[in-house]
Amino acid sequence: MGSSRVWPCILLAFFAAALVMATSATHAQNRQVARTSDGKIVRFVSLRADDVNVRAGPGVRYPVKWKFVQRNMPVQIIAEFDTWRKIRDWEGAEGWVHRAMLSSKRSLIMTGQGQTMRQDASPDSAAVARLAPGLVVTIAQCRREWCEVDARGYEGWIRRDDVWGLYPGEKLP
């Protein structure tokens, strides 16, 4: 009769321990989202591939919300969990991608009405090309008001106005 009372206590202790372990794991995951290897969280990167799944959560068990289909698209990392990065695109949409799908190579997307690419970093310089809204360009360097970029084989300078993928005042080598 004494042993029949012990089993419910053992089972209760087991379930209590399991609950504590699950709660601890959840808190550890929540703390990990706010950390990166170099201490930074929010930063711009670009997509490494032409086909990138954006998921509802950090793992393959989460459903794909949408796909990016353009290499070099700029995105902003806003959180991390293990090997997954929560990103935001230029339209404000957010989701999770694996870090292998991201590159530190910087790019911009043209917004607004687009703009004219110039031969030199001056509004009086000769026009090289007209860049349409939505066009993705790769960055060679950025100064205070101008960035040297490559747009589908055309190289030149654009003003930092009407682009997404840079922080105000950010300079790139």
Question: How would you describe what is shown here?
Answer:
This protein folds into three domains: 1-32; 43-105, SH3 type barrels; 108-164, SH3 Domains (SH3 type barrels, Roll). With 173 residues, the chain is of the alpha+beta class. It has one helix at 2-32; strands spanning 43-47, 52-55, 64-68, 74-81, 84-88, 94-98, 102-103, 107-110, 115-118, 127-131, 136-142, 146-151, 154-159, 163-164. It has a five-stranded antiparallel beta sheet. A five-stranded antiparallel beta sheet has the order 13-12-11-8-14, with no helix packed on it. A two-stranded antiparallel sheet has the order 2-3. The protein has one helix and 14 strands.
Secondary structure layout plus pairing:
Elements: H1 2-32, E1 43-47, E2 52-55, E3 64-68, E4 74-81, E5 84-88, E6 94-98, E7 102-103, E8 107-110, E9 115-118, E10 127-131, E11 136-142, E12 146-151, E13 154-159, E14 163-164
Antiparallel strand pairs: 1-4, 1-7, 2-3, 4-5, 5-6, 8-11, 8-14, 9-10, 11-12, 12-13
Quickly describe the structure.
This protein has 173 residues and is α+β, with helices and mostly antiparallel strands. The protein folds into 3 domains: 1-32; 43-105, SH3 Domains (SH3 type barrels), CATH 2.30.30; 108-164, Roll (SH3 type barrels), CATH 2.30.30.
> So what's the overall shape?
elongated
| Percentage of residues assigned to helices | 10-25%
* CATH architectural arrangement of the largest domain: Roll
**Number of DSSP strand runs:** 14
Biggest sheet strand line-up: 6-5-4-1-7
Low-confidence stretches: 14-36
Q: Measured on Cα atoms, how large is the radius of gyration?
A: 24 Å
Question: Counting H and I runs of at least 4 residues, what is the number of helices?
Answer: 1
Mean pLDDT: 84
The structural class is alpha+beta
Distance between the termini: 79 Å
What name does the CATH topology of the largest domain carry? SH3 type barrels
Tell me the β content.
Answer: 35-45%
> The biggest beta sheet, please?
5 strands, antiparallel
CATH class of the largest domain: Mainly Beta
